[in-house]
Design brief:
Blueprint: E1 2-7, E2 10-15, E3 19-23, E4 32-35, E5 38-42, E6 48-49, E7 58-68, E8 72-78, E9 83-89, E10 92-102, H1 113-123
Antiparallel strand pairs: 1-2, 1-5, 3-10, 4-7, 5-6, 7-10, 8-9
Length: 124
């Protein structure tokens, strides 16, 4: 089973026991974190797609460590002006291990309009 979660403005495809690096999250090493913004959960054709999120789906993770990414250097030079500027940045990040993916309470995939119309006709 896999899930697509949203955190830090990015989307990640995760499965149980995956280790991934995301933007900084609060919590000490060893703390449990729950991702409730689950965009998709399931296996293959049986995957449930949210609109925008799958209701009741939760991905549980454990904080492994906090760290910083490699330095990104922003260097600006104006030619023939004897002018330059160098600036560095290191992004804070958190490494997490996915423990569990719970799709409990998730809605089934939305049926097509044709099958909905057929179901309404049969009900009448």
């Amino acid at each position: 089973m896999f899930a697509v979660i949203k955190t830090g403005g990015k989307q990640y495809r995760v499965a149980a026991n995956d280790v991934l690096t995301v933007e900084k999250l609060s919590g000490d090493a060893g703390a449990k974190i729950e991702f409730t913004e689950v965009l998709m959960v399931g296996v293959g054709a049986d995957a449930t797609i949210g609109a925008p999120f799958v209701e009741g789906a939760i991905v549980t993770a454990e904080v492994v460590e906090h760290g910083r990414a490699k330095k990104v250097i922003a260097f600006k030079k104006r030619r023939r002006q004897n002018s330059k500027r160098s600036r560095g940045h290191r992004q804070h990040n958190t490494t997490v291990r996915i423990i569990d993916i719970a799709a409990a309470g998730g809605k089934a995939k939305k049926a097509s309009k044709k099958s909905e119309a057929a179901a309404e006709a049969a009900a009448e």
